[in-house]
Amino acid sequence: MDLAKVEYRIRVKTPNGNIFTLDQALTDSCNLEENDGEVAARLSFTVKNEKVGNAWLHKQLYVGNFVYVHAKAGGAWQEVFRGRIYDWITSAAKMNVTIIAFDMNYRYQVSEVNIYRRKNETGASLAKRLIARWRNRVIKKLDGPHKKLPAKAYDNKLTVTEIIQDTITESKKKGDDDYVIRCIEGEIAVIRAGTNTTVYILSEKDYLEELEDHHSIRKLVTRVRIYRTNDKDKNAKAKLTETLDGKTEYGVLQRLVYTDGKNLSEARKEAKQILKDEGKVEKTRELNHPDVPFIKKGDLVMVHGGTVGSAKNPAKLIVKSINHDIKNLSMKIVFK
Q: Beta strands 96-103 and 6-13: pairing type?
C-alpha cells in the first residue's frame, strides 16, 4: 500500500435523494473514530458554511441525513463508514458547520430492549433474535459467540449492543474467542477479533511517528479461590473448594469465584479464564502513524519499533481503539 496515495471522500444524501460530495478544501477538521467502550463508529467534521449550488451547506448537512465515507490508496474507492447525522452545530461568528455522525449501529447502541436468554442459548442465537425485532434488518456477518450460556433475564434497561457484548464477555469466560461488534455496509456484524484477511505491518521504517509501550501489573490477578455456597441456607458460611495459582512471583493478588456446587466445573473454567486474561502483565501500546483508512477496531496489526517486536518478529496486536484524522491523513491506534 502506498501511503502517499491515500485519499478520502465524504458524501451526503439529502431527504430528496440527492447525493453530493463535500469539497475537502471546505473542511477545517475531520475525524473518524472507533472508541473503546463505544460500538458505533463516530464521524465528526467542521466545514465552512458556504453556498453549494443553490443551497447553503448548513441545509444540506442537517440531522438525519445519511453520510458515507470512502477511501482509496491508489485503487478503487472502498466504503469505510456509513452513518447518519445526529448533531448539527452552526457558528455565526466562525461561519462554519460542525457535524457529528454515527454509523448505523447507533440505533442498537441506544435502543433498550427486554429479552429472556434461554437455557443453553448461545450469544450468536440471542443476537439473531434481537436483530430480528428490527424490520428489514439483518446481521451482515456472525462469527459467534458459540458457547452455551445459562438462562438470563435482560430486564434492566440494557441496550441491544450491551446485551450482545454481555454474551461475548460471558462466553469468553467459558473459553470462547473474543469478538467485536462492527457495522458493515450499514448492517450490524459480530466479528471474531484478529481474523482480518489483510494484515498491515507498521514499522519504524514506514514513517512511524510515535510508539508508546506501557506495561502494568496494577490489575494483575495471581490467585483465584473458588468458594461453594449453600443453596439451602443463604446465611451459611461459604466453604473454600479450590485455589488456583498463577504468577505469584508478583505477590498474591486475589480474586474470588462463588459457586452453588452444582456448577463447580463452570466455576473452575471461570477461574482459569480469569488467570488467563488477568494473570499476566497488562501491555498497552499507543501508535501514531500515517493513516491507513482500512484498519478497524478488532483488527490484527503487525507492529515493530522501539521496545515492541522486531523486524524479524513483529508483535501481533489487536486494535482496541482507532482515530483516523482524515484532514491530516494520520491515525492514532491503541492496542490491547
A: unpaired
